[in-house]
Amino acid sequence: MLCSLIAALIGCQSDPPYEGKSVAELEGMLREADPVRQMQGAYGLARLGPEARSAVPALIEAIKSQDPRVRVNVALALGEIGPEARSAVSALSAALEDAQWTVRRQAALSLGRIGKDSGPAIPALEKLSQDPDELVRKAADEALRKIRA
Q1: Positive or negative: CA dihedral 135, 18, 68, 147
Q2: C-alpha pair distances (Å), 39 with each of 12, 46, 49, 116, 130
Q3: Closest CA to 92 of 68, 67, 65, 74
């Protein structure tokens, strides 16, 4: 599974398609029709961390993707941006109810990385603490600790 995800992210090129791209170029990848390109753009933004803060509105839009791999990578990028992604708290809170456990888990972790500004997500994270998936429960509990710290 991990190998196929990595292969999808980087393709068969020698350099990953997100390597050396600007925030604007990666944001443009989020808007492409191909979910693999969207995923690569989101992952590239995640690698830039807080430097990608101007892409938060595009990431908020992209978290609505039909492809769970895109949603996971978008949530990852928002978490890597950190507190500068506070405007995404509502979108990440909605992702806590995603059908895919990987999306729920990453959304919870990202809310924790955003920190205190994720306070409005506390009720949803408390509910997520009862999730059937152990990794999701752990992520929710970790997020709650960070937000309340």
Answers
A1: positive
A2: 15, 10, 16, 28, 29
A3: 74
Do the beta carbons of residue 86 and residue 113 sit within 8 Å?
A: no
Residue ranges making up the domain that contains 78: 2-148
Domain count, the chain: 1
Rounded to two decimals, the pTM is 0.89
Q: Could you give the count of Cα atoms lying within 13 Å of 143 in the half-sphere of its Cβ?
A: 36
Place of tokens 């990848």: 29
Q: Give the model's confidence band at 15: pLDDT under 50 very low, under 70 low, under 90 confident, else very high.
A: confident
pLDDT score at 13: 54
Question: Looking at the chain, how many residues does it have?
Answer: 149
Tokens representing 121 are 């997500």
CATH number of the domain within which 143 lies: 1.25.10.10
